[in-house]
């Protein structure tokens, strides 16, 4: 009988029972697709990551799947949580690397930086490609898909926009916190919009007028791959950072933070920074459960 150790980590938080829960499964090599899919479905989290140290690449190897069997790439909570889990378990994933830190997600190199808090919690930053704004979407389409009045979705130069880093998501600026809280996604309409405008998920956000300590508040929906709502989405925070910079709302080489997951009672804090040749997404994770999977 085969068995695999696993940890469940809460991602984009340094407190247990907050952030985005992620199952991280420790293996010795790649598994077959059916095993990835079965284990991911059994956990039922928005994503499950599988990791092992690759002697060939001299780096941590990461693959991530949703409960529906969709393989997820990009620098999101699935990667951040996987790296943090390895570090918290004292796996020497950087021992054979120089000053540059990286892991391999499926077949792609993902650059990282790591620092530790005073209580030795790892704080990991993940590099994304510079953002590209691809297209705008009519506000009325999103108003219908989110069951909001049309005037609650911002228009003009700040209209909903399709933005790409490693992953392509739709950024949806909303009028205020009330509109963000009241959004109720229509899965069918969101999937139709995603197919028409060629994006994956929908990142709704608002920028508070008062100083709340967070530059933006956000919610994420991706029914096309089985995610009704996600408490923290690093792969969408990068495109949002690029969109905000494109709109001259944030500065280069400055760290900002947003909060996501409040509606789900899973508040998650994501830091983001736009640089001249990249976008960096960062945060912490904590282990909340451990166990063994029996095959």
Describe the fold and architecture.
This protein is of the alpha+beta class and 295 residues long. It has two domains: 3-129 and 283-294, Roll (Diaminopimelate Epimerase, Chain A, domain 1), CATH 3.10.310.10; 132-276, Diaminopimelate Epimerase, Chain A, domain 1 (Roll). 21% of the residues lie in helices and 39% in strands. The chain has six helices and 17 strands. The chain has helices spanning 33-43, 77-88, 139-146, 177-182, 187-197, 234-246, and strands spanning 3-11, 20-26, 48-54, 59-65, 71-72, 101-105, 108-116, 122-128, 132-136, 161-164, 168-173, 202-206, 216-222, 227-230, 255-260, 268-275, 278-294. The protein has an eight-stranded mixed β-barrel with strand order 1-2-3-4-6-7-8-17. Helix 3 (139-146) runs antiparallel to helix 5 (187-197). The protein is globular. The mean pLDDT is 95.
Number of strands: 17
Largest sheet features: 8 strands, mixed, barrel
The CATH superfamily of the largest domain turns out to be Diaminopimelate Epimerase, Chain A, domain 1
Number of helices: 6
- How are strands sequenced across the largest beta sheet? 1-2-3-4-6-7-8-17
Principal-axis shape equals globular
User: What is the CATH first-level class name of the largest domain?
Assistant: Alpha Beta
Portion in helices: 10-25%
- Provide the number of structural domains: 2
Per DSSP, what share of the residues sits in E-state strands of 2 or more residues? 35-45%
Q: What structural category arises from helix and sheet content? A: alpha+beta
Give unreliable regions as ranges: none
Oligomer: single chain
In whole angstroms, the N-to-C terminal distance is: 6 Å
């Amino acid at each position: 009988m085969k068995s695999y150790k696993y940890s469940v980590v809460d991602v984009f938080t340094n407190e247990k029972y907050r952030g985005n829960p992620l199952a991280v499964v420790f293996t010795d090599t790649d598994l077959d697709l059916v095993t990835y899919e079965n284990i991911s479905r059994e956990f039922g989290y928005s994503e499950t990551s599988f990791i092992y140290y690759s002697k060939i690449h001299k780096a941590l190897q990461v693959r991530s799947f949703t409960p529906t069997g969709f393989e997820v790439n990009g620098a999101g909570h699935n990667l951040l949580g996987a790296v943090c889990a390895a570090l918290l378990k004292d796996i020497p994933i950087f021992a054979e690397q120089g000053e540059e830190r990286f892991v391999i997600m499926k077949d792609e190199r993902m650059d990282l930086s790591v620092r530790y808090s005073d209580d030795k919690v790892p704080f990991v930053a993940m590099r994304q490609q510079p953002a590209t704004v691809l297209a705008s979407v009519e506000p009325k389409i999103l108003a219908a898909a989110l069951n909001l009045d049309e005037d609650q979705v911002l228009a003009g130069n700040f209209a909903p926009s399709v933005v790409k880093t490693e992953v392509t998501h739709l950024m949806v600026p909303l009028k205020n916190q009330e509109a963000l809280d009241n959004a109720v996604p229509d899965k069918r309409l969101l999937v139709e919009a995603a197919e028409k405008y060629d994006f994956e998920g929908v990142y709704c956000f608002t920028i508070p007028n008062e100083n709340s300590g967070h530059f933006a508040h956000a919610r994420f929906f991706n029914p096309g791959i089985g995610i009704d709502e996600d408490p923290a989405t690093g792969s969408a925070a990068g495109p949002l950072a690029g969109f905000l910079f494109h709109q001259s709302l944030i500065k280069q080489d400055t760290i900002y933070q947003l909060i996501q997951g409040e509606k789900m009672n899973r508040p998650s804090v994501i830091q983001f920074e736009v640089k001249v040749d990249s976008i960096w997404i960062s945060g912490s994770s904590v282990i909340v459960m451990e166990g063994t999977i029996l095959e």
